Every structure is written in structure tokens, then in C-alpha cells.
Amino acid sequence: MNISSRGRYGLRAMCELARGGPETTLSLRVIASNQNLPLRYMEHLFAQLKSAGLVDSTRGAQGGYSLAKSPEEISVKEVLRALEGDPAGVQCAGQNCEEECSQVDDCLTRPLWERMDFIAADLMKRVSLADLLSGNIPGGKEIK
Length: 144
Hints:
With about 140 residues, the protein is mostly helical. The chain is about 50% helix and about 5% strand. The protein has a domain at about 5-90 and about 130-140: Arc Repressor Mutant, subunit A (Orthogonal Bundle). The protein has helices spanning about 5-20, 30-35, 40-50, 75-85, 95-100, 110-125, 130-135; strands spanning about 55-60, 65. Strands 1-2 form a two-stranded antiparallel ribbon. A hairpin with a 5-residue loop joins strand 1 and strand 2.
């Protein structure tokens, strides 16, 4: 699974919003500065996040962006889907393994890739912004 800078930066920016609490409104300039992210890039990402219903915007001198739902209600998967579409799984042989790989029916490694995809998708669905802020990542202690 390959998460692009869109997903990584967007997730960091969403955590920055979540860190401020439910009533926090932050300008993109503040978010970009606090997370050391390019402001112009944030403008594009937040347009997508707003379209997906994950953030609200407020105009004016005190305007900016706020979370549209509580951090507990926004999963990593929702953020990544808004920015990247559905995450592609591990591809063992090009875009369409079934079409491109002559070993697809006899592949001993394919069940591993399928299981890895399932585990990653399940984890992204279960982990919320609140979990990221608290460091409460399932299985996080097992990773070395």
C-alpha cells in the first residue's frame, strides 16, 4: 500500500485541527506553519476535505477551517479516501494481477498480499483522529 503526500500531509493537517478541540477554527496558514507543510498544497487538500464533509469553513478575519465531526468520528480511512480515493492494495504484478500474472492461480504469496490489504484497510477504518492524538493505535506496542 502506497500513501502519497496528499494522504500523509492531509492526515497531519487533520490532526492539527483535531488537536485544537471541537470548537477550534484554524487558518490554513496556521495549519501549514504548525505542521511545516506547503500552504498552496493545503489549499487544494482542504477543498477536497470540505467536499467530503470532513471539514467546515468560515470566512472572515477569524475564519478558517474546523472539523465537521468530532475527532472520534473521523477515521484515517475517511481522510485518505477523501484525498486519494480508495487506497490501492498491494499489487504483486502490475495493476491487475489476475490479468497480468501467469501464476495467479498457483501463487503461494498472493494470500499474504490479500491478508496485508485486509489488515491495513481494517486498521485505517478503526483508527480515528482521536486515536492518533492519544497514540491509541491497535497493535502499536507490537511494532518494533
